[in-house]
Amino acid sequence: MPTPEQARLALAFSCVGHAFSHVFMLLYPTVVLALGPVFHMEYGDLLLLALAGNVLFGAMALPAGWLGDRWSAEGMMAIFFLGTGGASIATGLAPSPLWLAVGLALIGTFAAIYHPVGIAWLVRSAASRGRALGVNGVFGSLGTAGAAVVAGALTAWLGWRWAFIVPGIVCVAVGLGFVVAVRTGRIVAAKVDRHPEPAPSRGDMVRVFWVLSLTMLATGLIWQAAQTAMPKLFDERLGQDSDVLRTGSLVTAALLFGVLAQIAGGYLADRFPLRRVYLTGFWVQAPLLAALAYVGGPAIVPAAAVLIFFNTGITPAENALLARYTPANWRATAFGAKFVLAIGVASASTALVALVHNATGSFALLFVGLAAVAAASALAAHGLPRQGRTPRVAAAAE
């Protein structure tokens, strides 16, 4: 078992990695607003260049999780930092749309490592699982929220290429620091749960597997579609004076509500039955998504922010459910399977956003459909086992 200092450093890198995984996957939806005149392509066609990267971001999570369980979590995290940063730098140097798509695909491949490996690492070391997942989720939300303003600012000030190159350099530097910390013994990740729980019954494990397979896919679909559409949605509904930097800043402001949501969601996951927290979040999202189909003007920003709050607020409960009903030695693989569903399969939403917008000229039909998905997911979540909160441990035990 690592010392408290070693565990804290490992968790710090895990949290930074969570932020990076979202930053790099969300640079392009803002950068793309400036690429029409560069490559002489329509928005929908340019957006489709990110499809392979989004698919790989989910699809590669399963093999990454398996390698994290069977080979080395630390080794996979080093590959994540160095590979993602290097791929981003290469994307910024892309000379054509084809090479831009290749660069985005490489970003998705390396960024896929974080969620199965980094979150399983976090769960093993956590004294209070809901709170730890909430704090880790804060960093993910900060990465999600910050990506748009980082991309918008760098594009406006230095050009679109630097929106990939500068974050890539930072990520590589952090990766080198991580390698040094591992080599010098300053990071030793836990191999077993810090606070193990009684094993669930086989029947409950099977039941949770089928329910979460449906709901995690729905969560990913809603999240991917909403965050991909948001820059263009704001650009269209806020009027003619919008520009890339202003739009990116407002998207960031809306997504920052995910930070509060992760804290609130972690608190609730430690204190209330996970099933109740989870299904309530879906029921609230359904009418919010329906409202986004028609809201216009300045109201679009707070409406999107409230949706983000409830969509991300259920994440700690979802991850806690998955951790509770999965054997510890298969947890990274299980989280990998989750992100195949939540990100890989749901990455089809990128094509869905592009196709709906090209066909209808708006996002109204998209958000009505997502509202139906949220309602169906709430019904499915009623099938989860009724028992249980995440284990609560006094703060002093941390």
Instruction: Please tell me how large the radius of gyration is.
Output: 20 Å
Task: Tally the helices.
Answer: 20
Which CATH architecture is right? Up-down Bundle
| Terminal-residue CA separation | 14 Å
Strand residues, percent: under 5%
CATH superfamily heading: MFS general substrate transporter like domains
Mean pLDDT: 83
Task: Please count the beta strands (DSSP E, at least 2 residues each).
Answer: 0
Structural class: mainly alpha
Task: Just give the CATH class.
Answer: Mainly Alpha
Core attributes:
398 residues; globular; mainly alpha; single chain; disordered C terminus; 20 helices; Growth Hormone, Chain: A
Mind explaining what this structure looks like?
The chain has 398 residues and is an all-alpha fold. It has one domain (4-193, 201-390): MFS general substrate transporter like domains (Growth Hormone, Chain: A, Up-down Bundle). It is 77% helix and 0% strand. The chain has 20 helices and no strands. Helix 7 packs antiparallel against helix 9 and helix 14 runs parallel beside helix 16 (300-313). It is globular and about 55 Å long. The model is unreliable at 388-398 (pLDDT under 50).
